[in-house]
Specification:
There is one protein chain. The chain is an all-alpha fold. It folds into 2 domains: 63 residues, no CATH class; 35 residues, no CATH class. The protein has 3 helices and no strands. Helix 1 packs across helix 2. The radius of gyration is 19 Å and the shape is elongated.
Length: 99
Amino acid sequence: MGSIGHLDHLTVFLARPNGMKGNMFRGKNAIQYDRPRIGFHAKSADAQLQLVKEMGMVSAYVNSQKVWDKFCSTYEAIYDLLGDFDQYQSGLGNTIPPF
C-alpha cells in the first residue's frame, strides 16, 4: 500500500477521504457545510476535527509531484490502450464510437 515512505505504491483511501478528493477535482465543496443534521456544523467537535485531518491528508496526497507523475502516467497508458482497442475494433468492422 502507498504511504509517505512509498509514494510509488498504490494508495487506497477510505470512502470519505476519497469522496473529498473527488469533490476537490470536480470543483465542489469537499465538506458539506450547511446540510441539516449531517453538515459540518451539525457534527461534534471530534467529528469536525477528523474531517479537517482527512482534508489535510487529501491535500498532502494530491500535492505530491510523485503522485501526480504516477497518476498522469497511468492515465496516459489507459488512454493509449483504449486507442489501441479502438483500432482493433475498427479492424473487425465493428462500428463502436471512438473513445
